[in-house]
Amino acid sequence: xxxxxxxxxxxxxxxxxxxxxxxxxxxxxxxxxxxxxxxxxxxxxxxxxxxxxxxxxxxxxxxxxxxxxxxxxxxxxxxxxxxxxxxxxxxxxxxxxxxxxxxxxxxxxxxxxxxxxxxxxxxxxxxxxxxxxxxxxxxxxxxxxxxxxxxxxxxxxxxxxxxxxxxxxxxxxxxxxxxxxxxxxxxxxxxxxxxxxxxxxxxxxxxxxxxxxxxxxxxxxxxxxxxxxxxxxxxxxxxxxxxxxxxxxxxxxxxxxxxxxxxxxxxxxxxxxxxxxxxxxxxxxxxxxxxxxxxxxxxxxxxxxxxxxxxxxxxxxxxxxxxxxxxxxxxxxxxxxxxxxxxx
Length: 344
Known about the structure:
5 helices, four-stranded antiparallel β-sheet, elongated, about 45% strand
């Protein structure tokens, strides 16, 4: 039968045997893919021939090969896994949505993933995957018949089983979830009493406090109700360990004044400075312990005053400069000098 979509076995064997890789795994899930039908063609190109293969016992389905004259293998390792023997078709099952060999490989991988934690990887060896494939062939039944009732998988190891049994078939990422361990977060703030939220959920504890958290990264937010200030950070909790964070919630405020006249600035008058309605001193001051957050800053001079909202942050000193302008009062009479107004 001729069909342009078919792949000639001899051609495929030559292509595979020409791949110059130190380690190689070949899987054929097709009818008559076992040793005599395809394997001979493949290993003959490598300078080997089949001597025998096991039928029962520990070596079930594992072929034994021997060197021919002038072997071309040169230290390479090859694991050839076939879905059936030389005289067997390979069954496809709608119930499995795969051929028998493909299904057993995928099922083995899924089972192996369930045995490994989701933050770990595991190595699956050629011997391990093949042992589980043959086990599943015996265990999985379709309409009361086990898969190996139709055909049996075969492993052709080159140069021998000892050389390929520990070869890596693939590396898997686990999916098994493990119970998270606990660690401690210690939060110390100055001043004390900040509200605490962990991963967006408010806690009953106020700083200073110790909080037990599950291992891993958490988003922590501190809140000062008096000033509406929020401070957040990320912490990575380790099992059975304590992590301490010391946080200063005070900032710095400086207030200066200048005379503004004809576009020029000169040192200004002493202004009365109030913070949230409370006098704190004169201009030129530096307040080092202003609670972080929003405050009402007010300055006064003679009959003028100026108010503004300011935001204090612990890591960024706030400098506020006021320019004072004295306006000339309008003259009511020729000899009336008047009194000027002060504006900021």
